[in-house]
Amino acid sequence: MPRSEFVYCPRCATRLVTRPVGDRPRQVCPQCDFIHFTDPKVGIGVLVQHQGKVLLVQRAMTPEQGKWSIPAGFLDHGEEPKAVAAREVLEETNLRVEVGELLGVYHNPLALEQGGASIFILYRARLLGGELRAGDDALAAGFFSPDEMPELAFASTHDAIQRWQQAETDE
Ligand SMILES: [Zn+2]
Fold first, then answer.
1. Taking a C-beta distance cutoff of 8 angstroms, is the pair 5, 38 a contact?
2. Mean of the per-residue pLDDT values for the chain?
3. pLDDT over 70 at 84, yes or no
4. What spacing in Å lies between the alpha carbon of 6 and ligand 1's midpoint?
5. Ligand 1: distance of its center to the CA of 18 in Å?
6. Residue 27 CB neighbours (<10 A)
7. Is the Cβ–Cβ distance between 28 and 50 less than 8 Å?
8. For 86-106, what is each residue's pLDDT tens digit?
9. 1-38 adopts what CATH topology?
């Protein structure tokens, strides 16, 4: 059973019922035929490298408060993923970047339970400029080399760092 977000129909306020729709049970409105589809939550992460170091931010909020992650945020309806990537870096670190190649798309089914993203899109980005400063939702921000990594948050950050280190070794 999927977790219910609605009790009443958001269109006509009739009490919703659960019925099979296609291959799974969904909440539907018996009055107006509204179907509640549970869309995945999509996160965007950015790997910013500069002079052999990678940009990390220290999380001010739960989950994983106090640990470090790459700049990341949620994709809202109608937003362009690369634009979100650049915006998150700017908001969290005050740095301007040019978002480049796609590094990967990950499925993280457990993240949803913690309020995280079930789909995570990872981009590489190039530093353009700006003065490094932690944003409101970060305790600190900084560049770290592979041998001075702080305690990392999230599997997605571990994975991004690992990819980056492999790429560095290959060069
Ligand atoms: Zn309805």
1. yes
2. 89
3. yes
4. 11
5. 13
6. 20
7. no
8. 999 999 999 999 999 998 898
9. Ubiquitin Ligase Nedd4; Chain: W; (2.20.70)
